[in-house]
Amino acid sequence: MTLKSLTINVIMIAVSIAVSALAIEFGTRFLYPALAPSGQIRFVAGKGDMPDLGPKNTTLRQIKNTGDFDVSVKFNKYGLRDSKDFAESTPEDYFVVGDSLSFGWGVEENQRYSDLLQAVLKRPVYNLCIPGGFDNFEKTINYAKQHGAKVKKLIMAISMGHNLAIYEDKGKAEDKPPPPTALGFLRSIKPILTSNSAFYFLVTSFIHKNDGLKKFATDWGLITPNLEGIAHKAYSPAVIESTAQRAARLARQYDTLVLIAPSRALWFGTEEEKKTARRIHREFIARLAELGLKVVDVRTTFEKEADPLKNYFVNDGHWSPQGHAAAAKALIKYLGAPGKKAP
């Protein structure tokens, strides 16, 4: 076989594979329109002082391929998930800022703790939450204020599993990434496939529902079991101090109540790992108190139940409707019933 004919054959095979892949992908979208990437939740990255936001005036779906949730996510004209207009707010209203957990990842809007709190307090509670960290918290608050939000009373939710970090010396050189591997490549393209392929979503949904295939995918590292995926953090006084100071800088600008969202690491792992998680949790809250911040610890409410992990989805680290209800209960207990003056 000549080089020319070999090249032609390779091109024909590549074209055939591409055409087949496109046919499968668009066939999946036709048969299962709910899985089309265009209808799946996505965010618009902020630039400069702009926070990350959702696409404005858009209703999307948020579906977990393990079957944990399938919910509607409606972004308002500001790109936030709240049916109310914060331009109509008053200084007596509450605003909640936090990451994906307080955004209500995996639950319907009316199941979030902010909405449950609003129903009891009988006063607007505006949700400014979007996936991200402290920098995005601050940008989102400023963005809301620029559009008429009268932010005075703030509930700042800190996720112990994600928001604790060193917030200084961001320009420090990072460690070099490990050399690429075939498995690493598969993991790296997973977010791309998740966001752009309906067929990938369909296949992975099937794998999660088949014990044999799920075990195979887990053994090969393509799927991380829910609890085994918990990132146990090493104890670091520097991380605790840096995060506490970052939280305090934002909190002092408002009448702030800090809501502590506990890490699942408190209840899973070796005894030494759980001991470390408890130490981090305890010392971080103590440091916030030393800095004069008001704190509500949801861990206490979670542990009143038989199994704290039931407040999370089985295959996802975010709070289930039960977890949001528990968080709302903790806030309501602290703030008091309607008619009583909040602290």
Low-confidence stretches: 171-175, 339-343
Number of separate strands: 7
| Discrete helix count | 11
Distance between the termini: 84 Å
How is the biggest beta sheet arranged?
5 strands, parallel
Shape: globular
Q: Determine the fraction of residues in helical runs and give it as a percent range.
A: 40-55%
Oligomer: single chain
Question: How many domains would you count in the coordinates?
Answer: 2
- CATH fold-level topology of the largest domain: Rossmann fold
Encode the helix/strand succession as letters: HEEEHHEHEHHHHEHEHH
What is the beta-strand fraction? 5-15%
Class by SSE composition:
alpha/beta
Going across the biggest sheet, name each strand in turn.
4-3-5-6-7
Mean pLDDT: 85
**CATH class call of the largest domain:** Alpha Beta
Report what the structure shows.
By secondary structure, the protein is an alpha/beta fold. The protein folds into two domains: 3-31; 88-343, Rossmann fold (3-Layer(aba) Sandwich), CATH 3.40.50.1110. 43% of the residues lie in helices and 11% in strands. The chain has eleven helices and seven strands. The strands form two sheets. A five-stranded parallel sheet has the order 4-3-5-6-7, with helices on both faces. Strands 1-2 form a two-stranded antiparallel ribbon. A hairpin with a 6-residue loop joins strand 1 and strand 2. The N and C termini lie far apart (84 Å). Residues 171-175 and 339-343 have low confidence and may be disordered.
